[in-house]
Design brief:
The protein is built from five helices and two strands. By secondary structure, the chain is mainly alpha-helical. The protein has one domain. A two-stranded antiparallel ribbon has the order 1-2. The chain is elongated and about 65 Å long. The N terminus is likely disordered.
Length: 97
């Protein structure tokens, strides 16, 4: 199962199938979430999203949230020679979308 750029194992995705009335099942299921280490790149993405109030997910999800909120949900690209024709063409193309 994939949520945004994070991948969950089948074991973690099966949390929905545990017995709701058995607190021991919940405890085991919750602890199983922490058995695997989160990759450093995913951890960095999560921290950036939380600290900077950006949306975490794939491009389609971000576009949906951006449309609903009516504001940017990702940072603006930085850098580039703003006087070059290539940069101006690229930024004009983005503004027209």
């Amino acid at each position: 199962m994939e949520i945004g750029s994070l991948r969950l194992s089948k074991r973690k995705a099966s949390l929905r199938t545990i017995n709701d009335s058995d607190p021991f099942d919940w405890k085991i299921a919750y602890r199983s979430l922490f058995e695997e280490e989160v990759p450093a790149l995913n951890l960095l993405e999560i921290r950036d999203a939380i600290n900077k109030a950006w949306v975490l997910g794939d491009g389609k999800f971000k576009a949906q949230i951006e449309a609903q909120l009516g504001r940017r949900v990702t940072p603006i690209e930085r850098g580039g020679d703003r006087k070059s024709k290539a940069y101006q063409a690229k930024s004009q193309l983005k503004n027209n979308q």
